[in-house]
Amino acid sequence: MMGAGKSAVGRAVAERTGRAFLDTDELVEARSGRSIAQIWNERGEEGFRALEWEVIAGLAGRSHLVIAVGGGAVLRAENVLALRRGGRVVWLRARAETLRARVGDGIGRPLASSLEELAASRAPLYEEAADLIVDTDELVVEELAERLARRVTVAVADRPYDVVVGRGALSELPQGRAALIMSPQVAALHGESIEKALGGDVARISIPDGEAAKSPGNVTCVWEELAQAGISREDLVVGLGGGAATDVAGFAAATYLRGVRWIAVPTSLLGMVDAAIGGKTALDLAQGKNLVGAFWQPSLVVCDTELLETLPERELRSGWGEVAKYGFIADHAIVGECALGVRVPSDHLVRRCVEIKADIVAADEREQGRRMWLNYGHTVGHAVEHASGGRLSHGEAIAVGLVAAAELGVRAGLADIREETRSVIGALGLPSRAPGLDRSSVMEAMRSDKKRTGAGPGRGLRFVLLEELGRPIIVEEAEIPPDALEKVLDGVLGER
Ligand SMILES: NC(=O)c1ccc[n+]([C@@H]2O[C@H](COP(=O)([O-])OP(=O)(O)OC[C@H]3O[C@@H](n4cnc5c(N)ncnc54)[C@H](O)[C@@H]3O)[C@@H](O)[C@H]2O)c1
């Protein structure tokens, strides 16, 4: 509504998030060369709405914008559909008295005299259109802008959702009946605060800690407990914990009642920057990790960076391995942050990693193309992790994989980032080699990983390499020199 603070808050959000700010009323005026009041006088409301629709249709699907939209745009369903296509709609809600106090007698605003009636009649439309409702009666522009700026949208086609990143972000959880899935270890540390944030009507479901949770047997127990607690499609499933817990909660949500809404609340760095975002959920079988799963997007991800304070050092370090990956594939500034060593990262850094993953997932939800870039360092990394039989953490194995990818890149005639990779991995205290692992086991793990990820036998491996820093490409095994991979493995698996 007029007076809600769209322009002030919109501008402040745009500034904080490096986006451009646009106002549809201003664009209508610019396009027609007339003020809003003149357009209403000359063409009436219908004439104005037609111009407004042209402007909104032109903006739909564009990215990196904050758009303030005239209060009557919700009257046309096509406006709302267009804005929601890849975007998130926020209703800045305020009581009619607040709006009136801000608008005064509303000179130049054709509908100001009937503000109170309009606010009441349009409220249900705003509510229906909005992905997020924010109360602005106690408007402090900076605070509101901060709250909105810490949301990153994962703009997947049919169900875009937000990732909220920041200290205290648990307060953004919706209240309502929920099943809360977590391990006793994480429950002891953070169970109470999340239960409070969810409003207390919570059925706790306990799962084993870490990778042990990702078994079909355990998920059967989770399904049964969901049913026993009477969780319905109206309720929420919430997964709290590292990547293993959110994988299990997501899979249970994807399958229970043929799919219920779920929220991921990652508590590990790896979970925040990677596992909880993008809707890949998975279980392990005796034959290998992540062999059973579903694409099932959460409806919200809440990354409360305060929770990282209790994360053990080795887990934190492991998460930094993934952070470094984002630096290499997408943003050199992150590489600089990694060079400063392991610490609880800033909210800004976590948000930047989330943005990179969100952009890639939105462009390729089902991993047909760009999403494969996220596997930079993972072809060798996963195999090393597997062959180490659990001795190396995920992040440690990925660090070895990043070194291998840099080496392979040079042998494939691409960028030489070996020095930079080794120095970042060293600064993070992660291993650059995995001496003592059996090379044939690593090769075998790579080939069987490959078979599972889609390509038929005989088609060879596929690597993500860098043409230059920040520019990943997919390279087929047949495109690299025949002995390149063996030499690279000799390097990372050898004693020296
Ligand atoms: N779905 C995806 O897209 C995706 C992507 C990457 C990884 N994953 C999966 O994620 C898993 C790895 O995730 P992970 O590294 O978070 O490991 P994890 O889930 O096994 O957690 C590691 C340990 O950290 C503890 N922990 C987590 N948060 C804590 C906190 N705030 N304070 C204290 N202890 C805490 C856990 O209790 C656990 O013991 C793997 O199963 C992997 O397959 C999934």
Provide structural commentary.
The protein has helices at residues 6-17, 24-32, 36-59, 77-84, 96-103, 115-129, 141-149, 184-198, 216-228, 243-255, 269-275, 313-330, 332-338, 347-363, 378-387, 394-411, 418-427, 439-452, 484-493; strands spanning 20-23, 65-68, 90-93, 132-135, 151-154, 161-166, 178-182, 202-206, 236-241, 262-266, 280-285, 288-295, 300-304, 462-468, 471-476. With 496 residues, the protein is α/β, with parallel strands linked by helices. It has a seven-stranded mixed sheet, with helices on both faces. A two-stranded parallel sheet has the order 1-2. Strands 3-4 form a two-stranded parallel ribbon. β14 and β15 (471-476) form a beta hairpin. α5 crosses α6. The longest helix has 24 residues, at 36-59. The mean pLDDT is 93. The protein binds nicotinamide-adenine-dinucleotide. Nicotinamide-adenine-dinucleotide binds at residues 183, 185-186, 189, 209-211, 214, 241-245, 247, 267-268, 270-271, 274-275, 278, 280, 282, 289-290, 307, 310-312, 315, 318, 394.
- Biggest sheet record: 7 strands, mixed
Low-confidence stretches: none
Instruction: Kindly report the spatial arrangement of strands forming the biggest sheet.
Output: 5-6-13-10-9-7-8
Helices, by number, come to: 19
What is Rg? 25 Å
Arithmetic mean of pLDDT = 93
What is the percentage of strand-forming residues? 15-25%
- The coarse silhouette is globular
Helix/strand structural class: alpha/beta
Question: How many β-strands, per DSSP?
Answer: 15
